[in-house]
Amino acid sequence: MFKAFLILLVISLVFSTSAFAKNDNGKNSLVALGDSIPFGYNLDANNNHPSKKAFPFLMGKEADLRVNNLGIPGLTTDGMLNLLQTNQKYRQAVKHADYITLNIGSNDLIAALRAAAAASGGDTEYFKFLLMQNIENSNIVGKLKLTIAEIRKLSAAPIVIHNIYNPFQEPEYELQFLATKLLPDINKIFLGLVYANENVVLADAYTAFGSNQAKYVIAGDIHPTVAGHEKLAGISLAALGLNKKEKQQKKKKKVK
């Protein structure tokens, strides 16, 4: 009899512990995938860990989400795709995500820009030609499509894709050409991904930052300031319908 009582006691403790663990982790989870932007590069004194000032953590604070920031500085579309296909940490994180943010492609674009600038020898027309050729050869579009497909193999969670903001403050021809002439067309790639996939939404960083680089981009850098990350968090939450204003409006509609 006493043995049976002990067994029942152990079982009840196990189940009660599990229940408390579930309550403790009961928040919906946000997984941030991408490069140095979700990482929050250069926001802190060092870059040893993702910054708590980065937009994924700001989203988590605003919407009461548990955040898993998997941003890696320097990550390209090739690297992102490889991680999703082979890295169990990434795969498991995505598999259990309730929301996903995806920031990738900026480093591919910067690499194409640098290569074109180095090879063009100052010839502006040749620079344009080389840049477009490099972008096409890098197959950014194809790899972004494969990245979305890989995520969808693991999860049906809503995905927020960020397009590319204008990070350049210097009036150099190559940089301004990329920012003003090419980025609007390049950003159509991200819009196309939204239209082509279910439960994928766009956070329009290009429009949100506009020409306010002095406010939203770190001086002498290409990464967002704290204000820039606040802006990215805001447009991401709005895209998901998780910002406080939209939540309040939904509650009012339900009451009516």
TrEMBL record:
Domain of life: Bacteria
GO MF terms, alphabetically ordered: phosphatidylcholine lysophospholipase activity
Keyword list, A-Z: Hydrolase, Signal
Domain SGNH hydrolase-type esterase: residue ranges: 32-230
Signal in keyword set: yes
Keyword Hydrolase: yes
A Pfam family recorded for this sequence: Lipase_GDSL_2
Signal peptide: 1-21
Protein's name in the database: SGNH/GDSL hydrolase family protein
